Amino acid sequence: MKRFFLLGIILSLTFMACNTKQADSKPAASSQQEAPKTHPKYPHIPIAEKGITVVKPDGWDEQTFAFHLDYCGQMLANLEENYEPAKFCECFISKIQYYYEPIYFKEAYEDQAKWNQECLEVAAK
Q: Alpha-carbon distance 107 to 104, whole Å?
């Protein structure tokens, strides 16, 4: 439980920092028009940055996914003024579930800057 609490604090601080940067800049038009690239071996999985390896071709089980979706939403509730936490969490978790074990959610957030940006754009109000 301590691990999740610490993760929540770290995510909150990180999102607040990103929120400041995001509010000052507009997304590039070209990034919205590009179709997401998919993994050559698994066409249903978006391709990740940094050459990371797929560890779960079927993604997380339904219960784990639901837990992290809810948890992520709770951690981002303070951003509701500018973003829809549910949209960000659905977008981001649906991508990382193939590459990261659930306990590495924080690492996924730090590693996958492109997905963070894409999901923030999806969640922007």
A: 5
